[in-house]
Task: structure prediction
Amino acid sequence: MIDKTIQTSPGWIDLESIRNEFPILSRQVNGQPMIYLDNAASSQKPNRVLAAMEQYYTHSHANVHRGVHTLSQEATELFENSRKKIARYIGAPSEREVIFTKGTTESINLIAYTFGYSQLSEGDEIILSEMEHHSNIVPWQIVCKNKGASIRVIPIRDDGTLDIEWLSNNISDKTKLVSVAHVSNTLGTINPVKDIIRIAHGHQVPVMLDGAQAAPHMAINVKELDADFYAFSSHKMYGPTGMGILYGKASWLDLLPPWHGGGEMIKEVTWKETTFNSLPFKFEAGTPDIAGAIGLAAACDFLDQLDVSDIAAHEHTLLAACTKGMVSLPGLRPIGTAPEKAGVFSFVIEGLHPYDIGTILDQQGVEVRTGHHCTQPLMDRFAIPGTVRASFAAYNTLEEVEKLISATQKAIKILS
Amino acid sequence: MEMSVQNITLNQEEVIEEFSHFSDWEDKYEYLIDLGKALPEFDPKYKTEFHLVKGCQSRVWLHAEVSDGRLYLSADSDTVITKGIIALLIRVLHGQKLSDIYNADLYFIEKIGLKAHLSPTRANGLASMISHIKSYAKHSPPKEDSGETPDAQQQAMIDAIKEVYDPEIPVDIWELGLIYSLTIDAQGNVNVTMTLTSPACPVAESLPMEVQEKLLALPFVKDVELSLVWDPAWSKDRMTDVARMALDMF
Result:
């Protein structure tokens, strides 16, 4: 179906063979070929991820870290090898520092609770940014309220970039942690996280990065970044849902108290006292999502094989074409025009509600997200109720971008 | 009664017939949008938190009135497609008997291919709007049951609120203009939207409670739902002349 000639740049990625790995891409929506542009919410899954999970369930499933029997040992090996692979993928110095969670939200909650309850005192401050997803706001609000600490917010400029100077000027002895998005889900802005970490570490303040939108689009190296905590989700990077990672420096994770109690996370339990397991198991109570971990590791393989920097270059070509075509439409205003952006194009159209635009696009088979994207404070900052957001993945084509533009044009015609 | 059920069914059939002429989605949606645009203007006084049907992406305001055992509806939305579907719902249900509305099976929405708009993931408030209408139709008592006229109830509520004072200003909070909206439905459920002179106001917690207590003490009031809002912010312009005079003299 995909004409080779519409490949973005010869040699970067082979779109045809990529698309063949995603059976869902050939389905129809409302009688039209489906154009899936809601990848920032969740990406589709390649065959190899599904196959790895099926292979596990059909051949090697048993509970991990439990039995002496062959199946349990096989399952444990697959599970722990997945952890190693993921650790390598993000440049973690040790797989002990890679904790399996349900996703970015749970990873942030884990740190909010364990760091918050052990390290925060009354009068302390946490610094977030104005572009955060609710999942990097609400856990901190809960813990700060409980501990009498407060939240301060790095403001953003009109183009959707962070005002880093504000951070330099406002970080203080009271600051106990900085937690910001690596890439904004609504604006696509790639934040200067190295600068943020440099400034924070200059004040001995640790930094947590919400990498949910970064992991699918760029090579992540937590060691090079010198991030103290890094959270991301499997389902946004071609892996299964319900699986995510918390990376934390061992020095921090050893220091923090356990969060959920249960099996797996203990060394010894008596009625008098329980001693806790070492990393990473200290933070993994209960039977983990074994198939999910295996699926995520297969997704890392997929990204590695394609080379995530080639994917980024491809997505950048799509974004540039999208931006150029869309801004020429009457009344359309892009939200988020930072010079450094990942594959996200958010927009509003004068006089039209995002809900209506999204509905008319869906009628044409174009799947985009509408609404506030779980970033209500950011919507308030721009004084808009929501946006329409198209977000790209490795399998999207220039042809699809053109369809988005013509479908939006049609929506304007119908709705005006 | 039979007649009226027939009416809802007939209305639905009429809509289905109308929509059967559209061969493609574009014509259908253009027609829907035109219907939304043609919806009678919604009385701005009902555009309050109380009349807002919760939806995450788009908002729907609904006002229902009972007269002679029939339900009369008006509604609005900030999105044109939702508004178009509202226009259809009103066309099918407006002026029908309460019991018929409650028992109605609104199959026409699916038949004309708009069922997806009622799914919770659309978060457009339409599904809640239908359940609001039905619950209104179910719980509305016949009009003659309520002892006092709505006007008399409203005046009694205002009088009760006038007994509440901001401790720092010798003017009651009604004259100060702190009450943004005050409504009561046929079941005696009161909805109040109010503000305080400043978010830093030290009595922030006690004033709304006092208002609630005064209203609950009225015999016809069953329940009071109070929302404290900061938008729009209170300003001196909201005071009545009585309040201004009192303050100038003070």
The domain at 4-33+307-415 of chain A is CATH 3.90.1150.10 (Aspartate Aminotransferase, domain 1).
